[in-house]
Specification:
The structure holds 2 protein chains of 2 kinds. By secondary structure, chain A is mostly helical. The termini of chain A are far apart. Chain A contains 8 helices and no strands. Chain A is 68% helix and 0% strand. Chain A has helices at residues 3-15, 17-27, 31-48, 58-73, 100-115, 118-128, 133-140, 144-162. The radius of gyration of chain A is 17 Å and the shape is globular. Chain B is mainly alpha-helical. Helices cover 86% and strands 0% of the residues of chain B. In chain B, α3 packs antiparallel against α5 (74-104), α6 packs across α7 (149-161) and α6 (108-147) runs antiparallel to α8. The chains are: A mainly alpha, B mainly alpha. Chains A and B meet through α1, α2, α3, α4 and α5 of A and α1, α2, α5, α6 and α8 of B.
Chain lengths: 164, 213
């Protein structure tokens, strides 16, 4: 791996690091785990980089590798203690910008998303990232119809959680 | 409003609170090591290989080769050992290849294939070890009975006592029991060592499969 490639990669990752941080924040629930996953994704990206041919955008490719890494190589045990230490979560809910109930409902939603299966979570993540179904399907390697069906199921699930 | 639309708004508002790493932070990261499951399968197999090989080398001295010679199985055990190591090295190579493949895979389909390959390789590896052990055990037994001094005495005593059939039945039974116990222990050992890692891989696989349906 030569210096030039290294520099190019680090620069691109530095510019697009938000994507990785956001994946980490959804798939982990404390700062240390976030750091570990960021590290792991960085390594996977770097290893796969020589094969990145540039026929998709760097960020699209990053979504794919980052999510695959989160899903496959870095699974938290399902048995972990489920207390959500919200102070350590990156996306801290800003108390001043919401009224009490709205804030609570949002927290409930975030919790519900975290409780989803790893792949459902990936779908929601891409949705939150404002990707359309074509892009979601492409990133996860499924058909567009499949992505829509799954998304509808997730929406229903979240709705029942919020309005029991 | 749609719950997810609502969440999306909030999500995008939070963009500004994302931490930022410097160029140097990231640069340091690319030189660190991966900590994935498949890598551990590869490492454990290496450690295991070195462990058994060193036990073999330390305990194997002129006495053992003399014993094997006197039992008349020296050639066959030596070639068996050679084949054993050749195949073990091949397995380590395969573990390493799996590790590389799974690390670099981008699409979930390839990932599934790679996970299946890892599982198959590990299963083959475990069965290979069990088979090698069984073969060596019976080889030793065979040499012992056929050419060993005590073995000859036992056989002689059995035929003199006149109940040879009974002797063979008991003998076979004991042998099978010993083999069964040892094989169970080996099997348990592999289950503990690789089972945990494989179970995690299987979970991943199942989730990926759900996605495919």
């Amino acid at each position: 791996m030569n210096k030039e490639l290294e520099h190019k990669f680090v620069t691109e990752l530095e510019n697009n690091q938000n994507i990785v941080h956001k994946v980490c924040s959804l798939y982990t629930n404390n700062r240390q785990a976030h750091k570990d996953l960021f590290q792991e994704i960085t390594i996977q990206l770097w290893k796969a980089y020589p094969r990145f041919r540039g026929d998709s955008k760097f960020s699209t490719w990053m979504y794919r590798v980052a999510l695959n890494t989160a899903i496959t190589l870095y699974r938290k045990s399902k048995k972990r203690v489920q207390t959500q230490d919200y102070d350590t979560v990156i996306y801290k809910i800003q108390a001043d910008s919401y009224d009490e109930t709205e804030e609570q409902r949002l927290k409930l939603l975030y919790d519900a998303v975290r409780e989803l299966g790893d792949i459902d979570k990936a779908l929601v993540f891409l949705y939150l990232e404002d990707k359309n179904y074509e892009e979601i399907a492409d990133t996860l390697g499924i058909s567009e119809v499949n992505a829509r069906v799954k998304m509808n199921r997730i929406k229903n699930k979240l709705r029942t959680i919020l309005n029991p | 409003m749609d719950e997810l639309e609502w969440l999306k708004k909030d999500w995008q508002k939070k963009e500004q609170h994302i931490p930022k790493l410097s160029y140097n932070d990231i640069y340091r990261m690319i030189w660190k090591k991966s900590s994935s499951i498949v890598k551990w399968i590869f490492y454990i197999s290496m450690i295991e290989f070195v462990f058994w090989a060193s036990i073999n080398l330390i305990s194997y001295d002129s006495d053992s080769s003399a014993l094997e010679k006197s039992l008349g199985i020296f050639e066959i055990t030596s070639s068996l050992t050679a084949i054993n190591y050749a195949i073990l090295i091949f397995f380590i190579y395969k573990f390493y290849r799996n590790y590389r493949r799974i690390s670099y895979t981008e699409s979930s389909k390839n990932l599934m294939k790679a996970i299946l390959d890892v599982k198959r390789t590990v299963t083959q590896y475990v069965w290979f070890n069990i088979a090698i052990f069984t073969v060596s055990f019976f080889l030793l037994l065979y040499g012992f009975l056929r050419n060993g001094e005590e073995g000859q005495q036992i056989l002689h005593a059995a035929s003199e006592a006149g109940n040879q059939t009974f002797f063979w039945i008991v003998f076979t039974f004991i042998c099978l029991a010993v083999v069964a116990i040892i094989l169970t222990l080996i099997w348990l050992f592999y289950r503990v060592v690789y089972g945990i890692l494989l179970r995690r891989l299987r979970n991943n696989y199942n989730e990926l499969k759900q996605l495919e349906l």
